[in-house]
Batch of 4 targets.
Target 1
Amino acid sequence: MRMRRLPKLVLARYWRHLRIFVGLALLGLAVWFIAGKTSELSGAGAFLVQVRWYWLVVAGVVELGSYLSMSSMQRSLLAAGDARARLRRVAPVTFAGNAVQSALPVGAAFAGLYYFRQYELLGADEVLAGWVVIAAGLASFATLAGLAGLGLALAASLGTAFDLVEAILAVLFLAIVAGIAWNRRASLYHSAVKVAAYAERRLRRPPGQLSRPVAKGIRRIRLVAPTPQGWAMVLSWGTASWLLDCACLLFSFLSVGAGVPWQGLLLAYCAGQLAVNLPVTPGGLGVVEGSLMVALVAFGGAKAATVAAVLLYRVLSFWIPLPVGGLCYLGLRRLRTRSERALPVHLGALPRGERVVGNGAVGNGQLSAAQREVLIGQARRGQDEGKRPV
């Protein structure tokens, strides 16, 4: 037992140093980006000092709506698996997960793990939690690909797409392939079971050791996958999230009193969002700003005004949500600790030295991580129900 705790203590010690290092690195990237744009910022400063605050407030409101739409998409996927959670409970998870993704290199992978653990605390089992992480990512990608295709069609009337045709067509192709794969999922499920059975024979494992868990997981995915109406709701929320975030960029132009390059706005925005996923810098810092500025100027935006609008947009969509997500992360961590403390009360007094094992029976075994997450979720739901007015 002592040997098991030692790696966790070492990991916790190094994790504290890693968080400080990541924070300093993120700050250094910001300083580097700003230092490299001094000429553009000198011209943009004249626009920034004359910000129209009423448009700035609207930009902030629509950006908040973008995050809430993303949370609603996650709620819809969880509800399809009978893990129902209120928006006020899912929204902090969205902000915290976004902060994890924005603050760390290859942040999407770390954010996926964080979302997985939080979904378990919301009452989802391991299959449902993993499914929601994957399905939410695919739904976001599919809706962004559709908007990118629409943006390409709108920009085509200008006679230029700023060399983005091949990239956008490739994204659309991947989205179509994903849609075809989902439409033929029954045959893919069957193939997965056959591959597992073949692996059993090749590895000389007992029959069913690999294929049975795969078949069980597939049956669970079929149960938790949304209906066609549910998918329509999920995709609607995903589209709304992207469009509201794009509206934040639009209102940022209006906030600095600049003309909006309407026909190229959506295409440039989608290209910038695709750049976020490139594992170059955390949160696409520098990459997103540069790609948006270059594309929007190419589509007719005034250089200084475009720089001012893009910087204002990134403040609203990246820099302000980052500390908000950090506070949500700490709040959720504190809530989890409080739920763990309330866990014995929820389970009732157990004899000394005994633990809950397996399907809830009392024994001398240790409580597994998965069982602990489920019981914490049960305790939290019990607390929430106790707070509801009668």
Target 2
Amino acid sequence: MRTFILALTAVALLLPSMPAMGAEKVSARTADKGIEVKPGTFKVLLRESATVKNKMIYLDDVFANAGEDKAGIVIAYAPDPGKRAVFDARWLYRVARTYGLDWRPMGVQDQIVVERKSQVITRDEIEDAILAALAKQGAEASMTLQLSNRMMRLYVPAGVLATVGVDDAAYEPRTGRFTAIITAPANDPRAQRHRVTGRAHKMTEVPVLNRRVLAKEVITKRDIKWLRVRSDRLRRDAIVDAENLIGMAAKRGLRQGRALHASSVQRPILVAKGSLVTINLRVPKMTLTSQGKALENGSDGDIVRIANTRSNKVIEAEVTGMGKVSVLPTGFTVMN
């Protein structure tokens, strides 16, 4: 027994000292939170990802626990704003060996993705800047632009003004086509220049429905809202004046938010074909009435044919209201 204990003691003396459980492990996330790390205490780890603010990538952006004396070493250029760079295991291992870091990849799948912190300039902002430049060449301020690259957007570094400058612009009024050279941020001689092409379209504001309207339903002012539509997409019979829509009835069900056409509406039918109507005759000091049958549809002010329900004699009468028509004295005499 004594011999066995002495053997174990000898083995323990020959083995290198082991660190406390968990002493070698620290995540990049922990390092990012500002927890103080003593050089040599924790194992160097590859970060999962990194976002940098300036043009350089530092050793500490890629490796956690690189040490205070090495953290600020520049190891690569950062990608352009809005772009990202992927560094593979082979490149990372070379960097670690160059600067004496105790790190080696576990496999070829080890990598890090580095992104450049940036601001996004949207397509709408780009279009607004170009339209302001084209207005000086005859384009209307109410126009809308259609860029050839509909997915276009620009990126500028964080911490600078996200502005768009138009260095040059050309506009053809007949076709609406334009070409512009833009930069972002504006007035920055180091900014990259982009060539943008597209077309400028005239816009027309038209009344549309703010709800679905059923067939024969009368449209009121409360049913209308206004929408800007490209002029070249409007039909010739498109309704552009709300006065030509209010008080009209839908010939069929109409959807909301769409330009309406003259063929889609009609004046409300006050006298329906085949319905019984009241015929009025007004003469001095007397009003005479009779009953007839409408032979056709009629709206307010229309002249329609009316048949006597007894004699079947036909006269023409003016529609004056719902189920009501008016005739001249001669017509009323014929009716009777």
Target 3
Amino acid sequence: MVNNKDNCFRFRVSVVSLPPDRFDFSDLATPSRTEALGGEPLSSTAEGSVEAMQPRRGPTRSVLAALAAPGVGSFFRRRVLSWSLLLLGFVIPLAAIAVAIIRRQNITSLVLDTTILLSVQIIALLFVATRVIAVVEVIRSRTEGSPRRLASWVASVGVIVLALPAMWSVARSQDLVDAIDQVFVTSGSDDPLSMNQGEDGFETILLLGGDEGPSRSGLRTDSMILVTIHEESGRMAMISIPRNLSQLKFPPGSAMAQEFPNGFTQLTNAVYTYVISRPEIAASYTQGNLQPEVVALASGLSYSMNLLIDDYVLINMQGFADIVDALGGVTMTLAKEIPLPKALPGSKTPNARSIGPGVVTMDGTTAIAFARTRKADSDYNRMGRQREILAALTAQASGTDLLSKFPRLTEIISRTVRTSLSTNEFGGLVDRVRRGATIKESVGLVPPLVDTGNPNYADVAMIIDALQDALRDNIDFPDA
């Protein structure tokens, strides 16, 4: 009896002392609880152990971590891959966002830089690709039998949700690159638009508003404004040039000077149309990709007024109306009621017979009518309204507006605006205005200051010199 008990005791001890990996339930007559319930058989863990009692964790949490910061879920398995994914898919995009926030005051310059736009596209593609690689690695690294269905569904939905805005940014940035190629034309050199000597320390840009549109043949530059900027202080002034300014003179030896030795016989707003309709004259004003008719007009203004003109911006009226609409309108405070003309042919909406007095928010159609009307006062007062609406629109356009409405603005600008400014110059000018730079002075070359029918251009040059001196010395210009 003693021997039997001892043998039995030794048998039990030997069974208990077997290592866990020696258990084999396949030969037992009674199936395991898991198999009896229709589940998968236990693979290598003893039934009833602590590990077997715990529910199996799938890779869902790791997938979510990989979507948020690719590489985190694989850090202890593949160090090199993990660091690479984390750098390309998380650190670099985060750094790009930080740079955009820090330099938000120069946001226009950033989004007009084609190198930065290409970088945005690359970063967006890496943002998606790294997350795809990360979630695939996480799911494939799980042990056999680990539940993957939910994780795969989460991974698919998460990648799609993150990919949509990334692909949208790629498409929009490429649209902007294409628009930049169309809008920003170049002469092929850094020379000013016109070579006449002017005041040192100033940059002067010629803004032209054309009346091209439905039911109108050709283009006349009814709106001509010189924006002169004191480069050191950033102070700006606008000089309105009347469309009916006469006897514009051109540099000796130029094609237009030979054609009109005593000055242009038509109104100044007809120079553009005259040159574009005569290919032999236009050919002599060719400068790279610049519009020769604008170069001819700038050369005449520069020579007549002894003013160096660096660049130009040309926009047609309907394009300006579309830009106003895209930015949500423009708000101004009017001192009196302003009667309005009929809307331009092709306008999207009719405009009222009059607006004001008081605070008025204008859509594009009304803004163009406000800038064009001569019913309220005179052709010369109209130029003052054009300067006012331009200043109000640029001051009210916020960086958020520019970013959120870029797709629409890009489409409008690409078909209605041309400029010899570089993207850096244009972006710097817009950002300067948005940061609060205001038009310090504004003057129109109109009676009684200037006799537009028989102008003395030496006096005009003196007026402009005095205006620039006022900007440099930060004093009021008496004729503004």
Target 4
Amino acid sequence: MSARNAGGSSPWRGEVPGGGRVSRMLSRPMGLAVWCVVASFGTYACMYGFRKPFTAGSFLAVPFGPGMKAWLVGAQLVGYTAAKFLGIRIIAEMPASRRIRVLLVLIASAELSLVLFGLAPRAVGLPAMFLNGLSLGMVFGLVLGFLEGRRLTEAFMAGLCASFIVADGVSKSVGLWILGHGIPEAWMPAVAGLLFVGPLVVFTVMLGRIPGPSPEDLRTRSVRPPLTRADRVAFLRRHGLGLVFILGAYVAVTVLRTLRSDFFPELWRGLGGGGDSMQFARSEGWVGLALLGVVGLMSVVRDNRLAFLMGLAASSVGLLIAVVAVLIWPRGGLSPLGFMILFGLGMYLPYVAVHATVFERLIALTRDRGNLGFLMYLADSLGYLGVLGVMVFRGRMLAPEALLPWFLKVALVAGLASAVSFAIAAGWFLRQRNMEGAVLSRHP
């Protein structure tokens, strides 16, 4: 694939690579929008097929044993977290021309790690899952680079974020389906990954055909170049205090979202849910559809300042929805599926709003030299570090019988605190409107 097709040689001029039907489709706004959503959704959803199916297993029988699943989840999470810290620099500095090549290499490495896991689960299980997480942790930033800095970025990002919501559930259901056909738990993750190889290649090729932002995109959203270390430091110095409140809330949201995701089967059983293998896909499907509508609407708001504040407000509202779910469920007001849908919506709304709107519009309205890859990997590295901290210091509470009560208590406190933190961030940025270089102004 050429550098031009990867958006590399002239990524800011809005050229349409190639020719023929694809070229004509990508030259039309609606065609480009559909192409971007399908390509990004499909690529990242397929990535989940290499990451999440293993969490559908219990890993209690030989060659595993009690507590082994938590160790495997932890090993993958350590690798994933390490990738996020590495991505603060690597993704922020990544030239557009290298994204596709790097993405495919990372996916191949992730599948190789799963094959090693199947071959010798007792000997290399933990290192293999670490390598799997390390390989996959930078895929999001590579996909993100094709979508940011456009008038319809929120709509594109809604599709991308819906992919990891829906794919999270679907990948677990695929894992259960494979186990139901007699495949050993040790080989289930590798088999699941193989099922996603073909679709992943197709969607990745589509991703590489996306043209760079148009002149109108650049006028309303600003150029998103690779960043040097000096660029990154300057951005943080200018917006540091406001970002502290956003990042603090984001860490709490990431912890709760990840625990809900990785221990969905245990939480589901604690809530009294049944054993239907489609339970994961069903709950996440409803959450994804709701978020597509809410966050997608942000793209029609042309005022960068208003959209930025709306993103922070939506984050606080989402957290309050999750708190309501926690308060209602013990009183019998929600079914297990209803709780998972409502809590999932409450957690994913701030998670997606930060991805799709808050950081995107902050760069657009301040016109500072920045890109989404840098901000998202800064946020994700801290978020997943928080998840690791919870698993290390509260690991004994993650036993099936103790997980749900502890989870509900933490969700209540963290949800309320994070909602307040997003509100404080909005107030801080509002007060900066007259500061030179940090003006929350409308776009030109």
